[in-house]
Specification:
With about 230 residues, the chain is an alpha/beta fold.
């Protein structure tokens, strides 16, 4: 597993190729913005047609990360489902996969703006959660607590590689906050040079691009350090 190790609030963390975050000392896997059921919602409400297997692909990715890390704890950092109560229309096979993944794990659903938390699926349901120096919530606050870990924005960055532009989802972090990429398949993203993200991050912020070999670059779009 080609994870990229980095330090945040004096904690050793691993940015996984999938967009998941692993905290080894806590045996904790954190994933954000799964948006399970996105294609089902689109079909139900007349939205754009998406591949019907996006939920299966996301759950397979999650199963692989759980196996690779051996995590005993999971935090789903909000927008786990694409709309409230959407778990009721998921294919039975996907629901069975999800409940099987939960078995034996300390599983926390953080409330997102798309869903209040799937209370029918078990696990613990919280608006936010503090573990040691890290504070987990869905959306970054304008004046964050140091150690804030969030999702919501689906950040992505573009890297020029051998004359080609390569765009990938990315983690963003600085001394105060860490923003995770969207974990779900077909979730889209917001370029990290967008003002919605640059106004949140300090000039020293870094971007970690996901993919088979995660790589770290200075966060694009920020004013250069003087």
């Amino acid at each position: 597993m080609n994870a990229l190790d980095f330090s945040f609030r004096n904690q050793s963390l691993h940015a996984l190729p999938s967009g998941g975050l692993f905290w080894p000392s806590e045996s904790l896997l954190v994933v954000s913005d799964l948006h399970l059921g996105k294609s089902a919602r689109a079909a139900r409400f007349g939205g754009a047609q998406l591949p019907p297997y996006e939920t299966t692909e996301t759950l397979t990715r999650l199963a692989n990360d759980l196996s690779a890390t051996g995590a005993k704890r999971v935090i789903c950092l909000g927008d786990s489902f694409d709309a409230p109560a959407l778990q009721s229309v998921l294919p039975e096979a996907d629901l069975l996969t999800l409940t099987t993944l939960q078995a034996g794990l300390d599983w926390v659903w953080i409330e997102g703006n798309h869903d209040p938390g799937p209370v029918q699926l078990g696990g613990t349901h919280r608006r936010s959660l503090i573990i040691g120096p890290l504070h987990f919530r869905h959306i970054a606050e304008a004046a964050p607590t140091k150690g804030e870990v969030t999702g919501h924005y689906h950040p992505k960055a573009t890297l020029s590689l051998r004359g080609r532009a390569l765009t990938r989802p990315c983690f963003l972090y600085d001394d105060t906050r860490l923003i995770l990429p969207a974990y779900g398949a077909f979730t889209g993203g917001l370029h990290c040079h967008d003002p919605a993200l640059t106004r949140l991050m300090s000039p020293s912020a870094q971007a970690i691009l996901t993919g088979a070999r995660p790589c770290q670059i200075p966060m694009p779009g920020l004013a250069p350090l003087s």
